[in-house]
Amino acid sequence: MSYAERDRYGMYSKMGDGPGPALMGADTLIGDNVVNAQDENLGDIKEIMLDMRTGQVAYAVLAFGGFLGLGEKLFAVPWQALQLDTVNKRFVLNVDKDRLQNAPGFDPDAWPDMSDMGWSSQVHAFYGTDATSSGMPMARTGAGTRGGAGSGMGARH
Known about the structure:
Layout: H1 26-29, E1 33-35, E2 41-51, E3 56-64, E4 73-78, E5 82-85, E6 90-93, H2 97-100, E7 105-106, H3 117-127, H4 153-156
Parallel strand pairs: 1-6
Antiparallel strand pairs: 1-2, 2-3, 3-4, 4-7, 5-6
């Protein structure tokens, strides 16, 4: 099911009107398929993680592998690593399917501390993205510390 099919409010129903795809409802993106450049299915979006300090989208949680949810592994994909394919109403992630199996992932019942700088650096290094432009803080030195200019959805699409 695509974001257009999950649009409960009709915000995508008219071309040129409404918010998208420059601005889209996060709720409509949950469940969107993710493919790679070879058009191989990599899974679907299970959650969108917001950095509450910056107001930016930090990660999309991708479910990959398993069968009917059993044996499924989750991956936090930096938002800037995803590209929206508006023609096919899905996301594209430039990662080979075999390589994704070795990505830093986690079990659905054991989520990592996504605000941990070490974890964040590892994830961004794997996907070749810049942690400082993701909206995630590089240091926890004070209440006013923020990451660099974010990659909110409007900037990405």
